[in-house]
Amino acid sequence: xxxxxxxxxHGRGGQGAKTAALLLADVAFETGKHVQGFPEYGPERMGAxxxxxxxxxxxxIRLHTNIYEPDYVVVVDETxxxxxxxxxxxKKEGGILVxxxxxAEEIRPLLHSYEGKVYTVDARRISxxxxxxxxxxxxxxxxxxxxxxxxxxxxxxxxxxxxxxxxFAKKPEVVEGNMKALEMAYMExxxx
Amino acid sequence: MSRKxxxxxxxxxxxxxxxxxxxxxxxxxxxxxxxxxxxxxNFVANGQVxxxxxxxxSEHSAMSAAIGAExxxxxxxxxxxxxxxxxxxxxxxxxxxxxxPIAMALVNRALSxxxxxxxxxSDAMGARDTGWxxxxxxxxxxxxxxxxxxxxxxxxxxVHLPIMICQDGFITSHAVENIVxxxxxxxxxxxxxxxxxxxxxxxxxxxxxxxxxVTNYYMEARRAQAEAMxxxxxxxxxxxxxxxxxxxxxxxxxxxxxxxxxxxxxVLMGSAAGTMKEYVDGLRKEGEKVGLVKVRxxxxxxxxxxxxxxxxxxxxxxxxRAESFNNVGGPLSGEVLRALxxxxxxxxxxxxxxxxxxxxxxMEHVRSVLEDLKKLCAGxxxxxxxxxxxxxx
Lengths: 192, 393
Known about the structure:
The structure holds two protein chains of two kinds. Chain A is α/β, with parallel strands linked by helices. Chain A has a single domain (about 5-190), classed as Pyruvate-ferredoxin oxidoreductase, PFOR, domain III (Pyruvate-ferredoxin Oxidoreductase, domain 3), CATH 3.40.920. Chain A has helices at about 15-30, 80-85, 105, 125-130, 135-150, 155-165, 175-190; strands at about 5-10, 35-40, 50-55, 70-75, 95-100, 115-120, 190. Chain A has a seven-stranded mixed β-sheet. In chain A, helix 5 (about 135-150) crosses helix 7. Chain B is an alpha/beta fold. Chain B has two domains: about 5-245, Rossmann fold, CATH 3.40.50.970; about 255-390, Rossmann fold, CATH 3.40.50.920. Helix content of chain B is about 40%, strand content about 20%. Chain B has helices at about 10-20, 35-45, 60-70, 80-85, 90-95, 120-125, 140-155, 185-190, 215-230, 230-245, 270-285, 305-310, 330-340, 365-375, and strands at about 5-10, 25, 50-55, 75-80, 105-110, 135, 165-170, 175-180, 255, 265-270, 290-295, 295-300, 315-320, 350-355, 385-390. In chain B, helix 12 crosses helix 13 (about 330-340). The longest helix of chain B is centred in the middle third of the chain and has 16 residues, at about 215-230. The chains are: A alpha/beta, B alpha/beta. The interface of A and B includes residues 26, 41 and 63 of A.
């Protein structure tokens, strides 16, 4: 297990990147970590690029800044690859996860000269198959936890089930779909 | 039993308010403090508190209603930010001069313009001379703890002044972090019941609140108010000591970090203090003898404590998260330099404005400050009285 980790999320307003970052903070907290999960607010509106962040550590976290040199970057909407410099500051020992049906080999040329690992997952297909609607945040959460080795797999799923049961207390019928989305993405995410 | 949790700063403060269960909460929403009355109105709807929640039509009305309720003898609180508190301005003076111990959660945000929703201390600095006690929080835990301590300070019979508990908008208000939440009953017991000695709804003691004062009395009223403020530091420390004995977390008027043998000191407030602790550790690893003085209580200003903490340094840099437009420096540096001068502490000093409208304080900024301090110590002078950090010129 890694001792500390910094993740930057890129999404578009309404896709749930902030929710995913807060859920990652929740589940990491439940596994005993110190966490931060926070959005960067601009003039938000549906469809505009947004950024959210996670710090996860075994030690108390004192830094209160955005993350400029993340270990991992998650791109929830692949059209952002053209609009935002998503690999800015990204450590080459880390990696980038992109929501796309394309392969990691196809995505790499779009990432300027990023040298680290490139991971892809088809969150749209997974979301449609598991939830019947397009909510990319659960698949992206499952995929990033799979990649970044910050918590035990079984613990992750156990705690996420509890969190979903709490979060969706008024619509418990979506818990199984979200769990399935997490699991599918956790297994399917692939890299180069 | 206390419990470990992870909460945003806004949710943490709302929980403190639920545990306090005040009599009245008038509030009007404004980013980034909106979530506080939002969470609290849920507690009201769920019957978790029996507070009279008044959804007023403006911040001016929020503070007016708070003044009326508190004068009547009811424990009252509210929350606001930025232009919201600016709209309360005249009422802030009415609250303090009538010695009404209202508690306010101020989620610090820049003032217009350009319009901006992110953190700086302009709003609090605009209210620094209103007669309110002002306490700043570094993180969510401090925002919560400071709010738990708010009423025992404000309602203390030697004080009886309103208090604002500040935290940085979005940086802590919307960031989920680890936190310890204390047991409801322990918090209630710590805060205690509010039993005002004098209040409007006391038929046995008819009372006038807010009457006109002729010139012959006005200065005496102000002098009495200043006397109450003079009692605040002792009470803040007394309350902090009791808080530590029950909940285990230590608070002072300031916090000194790695200052014991520091040659160069940074002074600032709020969430950037945590960031600066990381940078101080980083610079210490490189052999730089640097330290941090975090000002927790800004009003009244702990001048002796700040001067004492800085008494052995070669140079100090004061970092202000607000502009004063006086061509000399920010409001915090004005206080710090006056404290040094009056306490006869002589060292080099430099002032900076940082972090306006939510901009981050970065290590490269702090390195440039340290370079400046070393230049000063070598006999060089810096251009201008104060400088901006991380700005495009």
